[in-house]
Design goal:
- The complex is a heterodimer of chains A (about 400) and B (about 375).
- Chain A is of the alpha/beta class.
- Chain A has a single domain, classed as Thiolase/Chalcone synthase (Peroxisomal Thiolase, Chain A, domain 1), CATH 3.40.47.10.
- Chain A is built from 16 helices and eleven strands.
- Chain A has helices at about 25-40, 55, 60-65, 85-100, 120-140, 145-150, 155-170, 175-190, 205-210, 235-245, 280-295, 300, 310-320, 330-335, 350-355, 360-375; strands at about 5-10, 45-50, 75-80, 105-115, 210-215, 215-220, 225-235, 250-255, 305, 390-395, 400-410.
- Chain A is globular and about 55 Å long.
- The two termini of chain A are about 10 Å apart.
- Chain B is an alpha/beta fold.
- Chain B has helices at about 25-40, 55, 65-70, 85-95, 115-120, 130, 135-150, 155-170, 185-190, 220-225, 250-265, 270, 285-290, 300-305, 325, 330-345; strands at about 5-10, 45-50, 75-80, 100-110, 195, 200, 210-215, 230-240, 275, 360-365, 370-380.
- A nine-stranded mixed sheet of chain B has the order 3-2-4-7-1-8-11-10-9. In chain B, strands 5-6 form a two-stranded antiparallel ribbon.
- In chain B, a hairpin with a 2-residue loop joins strand 5 (about 195) and strand 6.
- The chains are: A alpha/beta (about 400), B alpha/beta (about 375).
- At the A-B interface, helix 2, helix 3, strand 3, helix 4 and helix 5 of A face helix 2, helix 3, strand 3, helix 4 and strand 8 of B.
Chain lengths: ~400, ~375
């Protein structure tokens, strides 16, 4: 296998409504920022991998229209979409494009412009996950029992609160801990100039004052719907060593889908849900990615993590599934401040998805933020220690798609 | 290429207008069929790549339900949101990287669920063209057809000859959707006019269908089968957006074909390739594809079809299976082309087998006026 490195990163400012740019211009900004950061000319790019959730912005196959803004005409463009994990899968596709030996320099870019659709995509878009299938099922005379199990899931928040209850019951974590995670992520976001929900000095008490949405989630726990884009330039070892002072190597990756956690699988006649917080797919992905990366003990060897956590319970849960903490102990580590910037295992120093959620882009941003920390370019949210290895995570679908990527400062 | 990769198993559905089957059932059938054809089980598969699009499926995260049906659960998987040939391309990259050895590739669309021509209106620039509401894949293809026909003096009869050839070929292919053994130029030119000069029989039908392939690296392929079909070359390219490109030429296909030929060491495609399976969503596109693939000089596509050179018994048979005019289950169409060429190389194309096929070309496209193109060169031992 060829070694593949990230040699440049670019992103745009995220906010609820980017009225200053249209979709094509916004993606263009991210790609040009990445090319500039990598000091690579557009003519040198061999291939593009792109992705977003096309229903959320209301444009079908948007890369065909906006390709001209990112220098894609005349080049191979591969479009990937897997729900929330799209960005992670787009980056992984760029990795494979270079690792395969077919291309030397690839650009991965992912975006979302929620404000282009009439209602925030996270609610309408995810309702459509069930709707299309429901209509189809009615067509075939399937009973309404199945319809209930899909629509009553309540889109992303419904899936997540169901899962959070499993997790809290299993680990002993309480709502106070969710307040702490959300407050930490908003504080962290205040140090990230690209982030959406910035709240300097936010405390768990501030979060606890917000209204309940669906137990165990308060309004202050839930991610926003953002407009934004991000991009990375990936290159083979030969190019990376020549062009970049501190390339960030992709050492391990995996994207196992997890059937058992699909919240609909019980009603839809799949195998029953045992425990929505089990996340075998995440565990399997982590094991494979660490093995590829040669990491034996992630608790010791991983220096920081970027976890895809639109809901705060997921930061704790996935940290455990990624092997960063022992089962059921993440909330205890949180109490001790281990996931803070000065802690043992800083999590989501960028504020993560909890503060910025441009869905297609979110999982790519996790990888990008790890890369920035390793390169030492994270500016105000740079961790005050040397980062050798970092892990980036993304989830999508009904928490059944996972993308785990392990990055490091050396390819070995 | 770093490793040799082969196609070792395949299956496709009986493409038809309304399959009366859920997408999950359809996908399960082809995935199971491809594994059975290869003689392996789900446990042997390392990675699964599927292809479908959210708009065409009418649901967000279109693979959410089908990834169970295709057997992707607890597998390293991903979804390509375009033609299935791109899914095969991604699976190929995954195997070439050395991370995976055996890949299952699956693509499907049920055109009967959401009208694909309606969806195509959402593909055009949302700020300008979509607002007019008059641009869709058919009207854009009509512009393309007129530009091409005017530039090279191509008649409607010559374009209709492509439909006659492919629809008659489809009659021999039990998997094809639109099978018309007795079709003639008159029948084609008297079919319903959509946007001049595009008629019902010069555009592809709306089909339900799915296709699946199993790809394997050299060591595994030799264990699995005695006659693997090797991927010798691949090339892919995206053209500029509709208003910023030459509509009368398939520039991106030309680049994709050049890359694929270079990788496969092909210098004279006319002589070195025995059979072609191309995705001609509209009859005139097949003539443009001949030119972009370098089978004839620019503007001479009409000569090939007129002289019958691309007929089943011609010198360079194109679309013996009936092509996209015979059946167009959109995301599966490109993957079906790869499967049909693999069948020709293996000698399994009962009823439309071309004798002595050693090397074949499969083409997939996606987007309005074939904005994106991908070319595979396949070969036998």
């Amino acid at each position: 296998m060829r070694n593949v490195a990230i040699i440049g990163c670019g992103q745009t400012k995220h906010s609820g409504r980017r009225r200053d740019v249209n979709l094509a211009e916004m993606v263009g900004d991210a790609v040009w920022n990445a090319l500039e950061d990598a000091q690579v000319g557009p003519h040198e790019v061999d291939a593009f991998t792109v992705g977003n959730m096309q229903g959320f912005g209301g444009v079908a196959q948007p890369e065909q229209w906006l390709g001209d803004w990112i220098g894609a005409p005349g080049k191979p463009v591969l479009r990937i979409a897997t729900g929330g994990s799209t960005g992670g899968c787009v980056a992984q596709a760029a990795f494979y494009a270079v690792a395969s030996g077919l291309y030397d320099i690839a650009v991965a870019t992912a975006w979302e412009k929620h404000s282009d659709s009439k209602e925030p995509g996270a609610t309408t878009g995810l309702a459509h996950v069930g709707l299309g299938n429901t209509l189809n099922m009615i067509n075939f005379g399937v009973s309404f029992k199945h319809l209930l199990s899909m629509v009553a899931a309540g889109a992303a928040a419904g899936v997540a609160c169901y899962q959070a209850m499993y997790y809290m019951h299993r680990s002993g974590c309480r709502v106070e801990h969710l307040d702490m995670v959300a407050a930490k992520d908003r504080r962290n976001a205040a140090n990230n100039k690209y982030a959406h929900l910035q709240w300097p000095g936010c405390t768990p008490e501030d979060i606890a004052k917000t209204k309940w949405v669906a137990y165990p989630f308060r309004y202050g726990h839930i991610c926003p719907a953002s407009d934004g884009a991000s991009a990375m330039v990936l290159a083979c070892e030969e190019v990376a060593r020549k062009r970049c002072k501190k390339p960030v190597w992709i050492k391990g990756l995996a994207a196992y889908s997890d059937e058992e956690n699909q919240i609909m699988s019980e009603g839809a006649g799949g195998i029953g849900i045992l425990d929505a917080s089990q996340q075998i797919g995440a565990t399997m992905s982590a094991i494979k990615a660490y093995k590829m990366a040669g990491i034996k003990d992630p608790q010791k060897e991983i220096d920081l993590a970027e976890i895809y956590q639109p809901f705060p319970s997921q930061e704790l849960m996935f940290a455990e599934r990624l092997g960063l903490f022992d089962e059921g102990t993440a909330w205890k580590a949180l109490e001790k401040g281990e996931t803070d910037i000065n802690g043992k295992m800083p999590c989501d120093l960028s504020g993560g998805v909890n503060a910025t959620n441009a869905i297609g882009s979110s999982a790519l941003q996790r990888i990008l933020e790890c890369a920035l920390q390793i390169m030492g370019k994270a500016e105000e949210h740079q961790v005050p220690k040397e980062v050798h290895n970092a892990v980036a995570h993304g989830w999508g679908g009904a928490t059944n798609y996972i993308a785990v990527t392990v990055l490091g400062d050396s390819p070995y | 290429m770093a490793r040799r990769v082969a196609i070792v198993g395949y299956a496709q559905s009986y493409h038809q207008h309304d399959m009366q089957m859920t997408r999950e059932d359809m996908v399960f059938e082809v995935a199971k069929g491809a594994l059975r054809n290869a003689g392996i089980s789900r446990e042997d598969v390392d990675t699964v790549i599927t292809a479908s699009t959210d708009f065409l499926d009418g649901r967000t995260i279109s693979n959410l339900y089908t990834s169970m049906a295709v057997g992707a659960y607890l597998k390293d998987e991903s979804k390509v949101e375009e033609d299935g040939a791109f899914a095969a391309y991604y699976a190929l990259m995954r195997i070439l990287s050395g991370v995976h050895d055996i890949a299952l590739v699956e693509a499907h669309t049920q055109g009967s669920v959401v009208n694909p021509h309606l969806v195509s209106n959402y593909t055009v620039d949302p700020l300008f063209e979509r607002q007019y509401g008059d641009l869709n894949d058919i009207s854009a293809a009509a512009l393309q057809a007129r530009m091409y026909m005017n530039k090279y003096d191509v008649s409607e009869e010559q374009v209709a000859t492509v439909s006659v050839k492919n629809l008659a070929n489809a009659a021999c292919n039990p998997h094809a959707h639109r099978r018309m053994p007795d079709v003639s130029i008159e029948v084609v030119l008297s079919s319903k006019l959509y946007y001049d000069p595009i008629r019902e029989l010069t555009m592809s039908p709306i089909s339900d269908g799915a296709c699946a392939l199993v790809l394997a690296c050299e060591e595994k392929a030799k264990e699995i089968t005695d006659n693997p079909v090797w991927i010798e070359g691949v090339g892919s390219c995206q053209d500029g957006y509709l208003r910023d490109r030459n509509l009368d030429k398939l520039d991106s296909l030309q680049i994709a074909a050049k890359d694929a030929y270079e990788m496969a060491g092909i210098t004279a495609p006319f002589a070195q390739i025995d059979v072609f399976e191309v995705s001609e969503k509209f009859a005139h596109e097949e003539l443009m594809i001949y030119e972009a693939l370098g089978l004839c000089r620019e503007g001479k596509g009409k000569t090939l079809i007129e002289k019958g050179m691309t007929e089943k018994d011609g010198e360079i048979p194109v679309n013996p299976s009936g092509g996209a005019l015979g059946a167009d289950p959109i995301c599966a169409t490109g993957l079906v082309r790869i499967m049909e060429t693999a069948k020709q190389i293996r000698g399994e194309a009962n009823g439309y087998q071309i004798p002595n096929v050693h090397r074949a070309l499969a083409h997939g496209q996606f987007g309005i006026c074939a904005q994106k193109n991908i070319v595979f060169i396949l070969g036998g031992e």
